[in-house]
Specification:
- Chain B: Binds specifically to the 3'-terminal U-tract of U6 snRNA.
- Chain B: It holds the Pfam family LSM.
- The structure holds two protein chains of two kinds.
- Chain A is mainly beta.
- Chain A has a five-stranded antiparallel beta sheet.
- The longest helix of chain A is centred in the C-terminal third of the chain and has 6 residues.
- A six-stranded antiparallel beta sheet of chain B has the order 1-6-2-3-4-5.
- In chain B, strand 3 and strand 4 form a beta hairpin.
- Chain B is built from two helices and six strands; from the N terminus they run βαβββββα.
- By secondary structure, chain B is of the alpha+beta class.
- Classes of the chains: A mainly beta, B alpha+beta.
- The interface between A and B is medium-sized, with 31 and 24 residues.
């Protein structure tokens, strides 16, 4: 099972096509802000249009569970521009 | 520093295929640009890029990729690809690009 993450969402990639439209299951958004790192469930099953995808990264579960999300501060990501 | 080239110069993905080993830097296009370093795994016709062994050059500013080792980057969001200068033969590349431009005109 591969966990993938684009810009701000994490989930399991169920399918994709040539234009990088994605089917993302168990997706939860990691909202970053300068004051706190929060994780919330956005939607169980997402269909994402490829235009809005910038990066798909494979999350290494070991490293990810070692992350202390409560302590991570960062600026929010901008939306995708082409 | 490596050689920085706008991707419009690379009109053929065959050029990138010759780079399957060296490390290079990739800067996705956004207002707040972030730089991803990695080893080029593969490229496709849309210049989508697969990188292995990622590191983000400014991990404090961009913790989003902390737990990601391999990633796929959509070609349309990439602004620059920085390659090690000694891996690029610019003369050869220029000649090949000109040839292709000529072929396309015909």
């Amino acid at each position: 099972m591969i966990l993938l993450h684009y810009y701000s969402c994490c989930g399991t990639l169920k399918g994709f096509d040539q234009t990088i439209n994605l089917i993302l299951d168990e997706s939860h958004e990691r909202v970053f802000s300068s004051s706190q790192g929060v994780e919330q469930v956005v939607l169980g099953l997402y269909i994402v249009r490829g235009d809005n995808v910038a990066v798909i990264g494979e999350i290494d579960e070991e490293t990810d569970s070692a992350l202390d999300l409560g302590n991570i501060r960062a600026e929010p990501l901008n939306s995708v521009a082409h | 520093m490596g050689l920085v080239m706008p991707l419009s110069v690379c009109t053929f993905s065959g050029f990138f295929k010759s780079f399957t080993s060296p490390i290079h830097v990739l800067i996705p296009c956004s207002e707040v640009t972030s730089v991803i370093c990695g080893t080029l795994h593969s490229v496709d016709q849309y210049l989508n890029i697969k990188l292995t062994d990622i590191s983000v050059t400014d991990p404090e500013k961009y913790p989003h990729m902390l737990s990601v080792k391999n990633c796929f980057i959509r070609g349309s969001v990439v602004r620059y690809v920085q390659l090690p200068a000694d891996e690029v033969d610019t003369q050869l590349l220029q000649d090949a690009a000109r040839k292709e431009a000529l072929q396309q005109k015909q």
